[in-house]
Amino acid sequence: MKLSDNKATLSFSNGHAPIELPVYSGNIGPDVIDIRKLYGQSGMFTYDPGFLSTASCQSAITFIDGDKGELLYRGYPIEQLATQCDYMETCHLLLYGNLPGASAKAAFAKNVKYHTMVNEQMQFFLRGFRRDAHPMAIMTGLVGALSAFYHDSTDINNAEHREIAAIRLIAKMPTLVAMAYKYSVGQPFMYPKNELSYAGNFLHMMFATPCEPYVVNPVIERAIDRIFTLHADHEQNASTSTVRLCGSSGTNPFAAIAAGVACLWGPAHGGANEACLQMLEEIQASGGISKVGEFMNQVKDKNSNVKLMGFGHRVYKNYDPRATLMQETCNEVLEALGLQDDPLFKLAKALEKIALEDDYFVSRKLYPNVDFYSGIVQRAIGIPVKLFTGIFALARTAGWIAQLNEMISDPEYKIGRPRQLFTGSPRRDVLPLESR
Ligand code: CMC
């Protein structure tokens, strides 16, 4: 970051002398005011719940221009990556900063493939869960448990350990997600097949059985690869910030990523695709397109607490570029599977059309996000709704680990320790039990 000529001056009405604060510029995006010395100089903290105006770190990985609806991984637009590269290239880009050439890509993909199996003991750990456990509960446990199995890659301060942990996590996430699925339906776990692509192998572990050969459908394989690419990173969102905060204590990478998985589970974040599909199914069950108007009135009613899931974003105040790409994939998959008349897809398009013309959504700059269409694609592929967020976690692991490793390599990195505005009781004395 570069020190800007611009400076910010903070003045106070209580007679405290004004404080001059340095301003830094990134390569693109808003400048930041450096408040690190503010407490020492003024005895005051800044107050920013939800981080509406706070940059928590410097990062060179992902950039979002929310007003333009632009998403760049290491400078490359998501539209180009999603149409000209695959997920393995995207992972390489996020981790190492450059798009690999053919031989580097092959070496990276081979390295990932050689780590796709998980320790055989993991299945006994998995078998401890109830069969109807939510896959995200299972994933939180399994990912954290990796640190109990791979002791040679748990030292976050060792660059070699971080590298092996990154490859292991990217390689093993599809295996774990597929195992969680197979366990829920009572089918045998399928071992990875290294001759397949990353996405193809995931489909194989999900849908193959030992009884008959499974042939990967190339349209579905491309759709899965695109879902992975679109979800691979998204700068300092809640789960990524959780991974960074958790990792800032020096904990091992598997534990830090497990924290990210737990955070992603929430319906305002990664759980939105599951919530969005449930919403579409409920509207469909209550009467379909004819009930859209009634549903929209509930969404706009401030007392109802109903949200149009898959709409709105903290950063995008324009169309989420991933939503456009996901809608394209949705068309391709439904056509390939002969589901062009899928009622939920029609319903989603009707909701989108109404929302984009309605003043409630227009004035609040609420547009479809990636999750508005990703659920329809996954459902068409045969992925159960409960597994959607697990697939998001699988894809986001590349971003989480890239962000974690970037933080650990940053000389300015410190343990994260937010401050607070205390609103509880001042000091008081404990009364004897009989007087309380
Ligand atoms: N439906 C109806 N109203 C909404 C919605 C929505 N989906 N999203 C925001 N609003 C309203 C909100 O009620 C508020 O209205 P008002 O100003 O009258 O109080 C205004 O828009 C601003 O919303 P906000 O809650 O202050 O915005 P935020 O930046 O805190 O929240 C969000 C962003 C994503 C949590 C929110 O838009 C939301 O809950 N959307 C639905 C869930 C969803 O689709 N999440 C997936 C995000 S993309 C995947 C990911 O990156 O994790």
Mean pLDDT: 94
Query: Percent range for helical residues?
Result: 40-55%
**Unreliable residue stretches:** none
- Reading the helices and strands in chain order gives EEEHEEEHHHHHHHHHHHHHHHHH
Content-based structural category = mainly alpha
Strand order, largest beta sheet? 1-2-3
β-strand amount: 5-15%
User: How many H/I helical runs?
Assistant: 18
Question: Short description, anyone?
Answer:
This protein is mainly alpha-helical and 436 residues long. It has helices spanning 38-42, 78-84, 87-96, 102-113, 122-126, 135-149, 159-185, 198-207, 218-230, 238-247, 253-264, 272-285, 292-300, 321-336, 343-357, 359-363, 371-381, 388-409, and strands at 2-10, 19-25, 32-33, 62-65, 70-73, 76-77.
Write the layout of secondary structure elements.
Elements: E1 2-10, E2 19-25, E3 32-33, H1 38-42, E4 62-65, E5 70-73, E6 76-77, H2 78-84, H3 87-96, H4 102-113, H5 122-126, H6 135-149, H7 159-185, H8 198-207, H9 218-230, H10 238-247, H11 253-264, H12 272-285, H13 292-300, H14 321-336, H15 343-357, H16 359-363, H17 371-381, H18 388-409
Antiparallel strand pairs: 1-2, 2-3, 4-5, 5-6
Helix pairs in contact: 3-18, 6-7, 6-11, 7-8, 7-18, 8-9, 9-14, 9-17, 9-18, 10-11, 10-18, 11-18, 12-15, 12-17, 14-17
Bound molecules: carboxymethyl coenzyme *A (CMC).
Describe the structure.
The protein has a three-stranded antiparallel beta sheet with strand order 1-2-3. The protein has helices at residues 38-42, 78-84, 87-96, 102-113, 122-126, 135-149, 159-185, 198-207, 218-230, 238-247, 253-264, 272-285, 292-300, 321-336, 343-357, 359-363, 371-381, 388-409, and strands spanning 2-10, 19-25, 32-33, 62-65, 70-73, 76-77. It is built from 18 helices and six strands. It has 436 residues and is mainly α. The protein is globular and about 80 Å long. A hairpin with a 6-residue loop joins strand 2 and strand 3. Carboxymethyl coenzyme *A binds at residues 234, 237, 268-270, 272, 299, 307-314, 364, 366, 369-371.
